[in-house]
Amino acid sequence: MTTTARFGFASGNLAKIWAVPKYVFGFILSWFVPRDRSSWIFGSGIGVGEGALAVARELQRRHPETRVVWAVADEEEAESARSEDSSRCSATDAPASGPRSGPE
To answer: In angstroms, what CA-CA distances link 5 with 2, 11, 13, 20, 59?
Structure first.
């Protein structure tokens, strides 16, 4: 089987270098975004799981007053987030068409 697409370290590294201004801009912008230490938002490419779930659970164990919000892609993931702890977890939909807030 022959593939036409190939990964090249030079092109991959160049793409990372070109992305540096975006990261710098995001870092500077983060200084001006108001934060609330009692609210955290979590997300994962595979839904409610992996490392994000472990961190959220540990955060809630250490700081039970913390409000955890999950960014989810569909209702199935929203239900999974709600099942973690319905009194402290809410889910927001982030469909492919763009982010929007869902019911809490």
So the answer is: 9, 12, 17, 25, 42
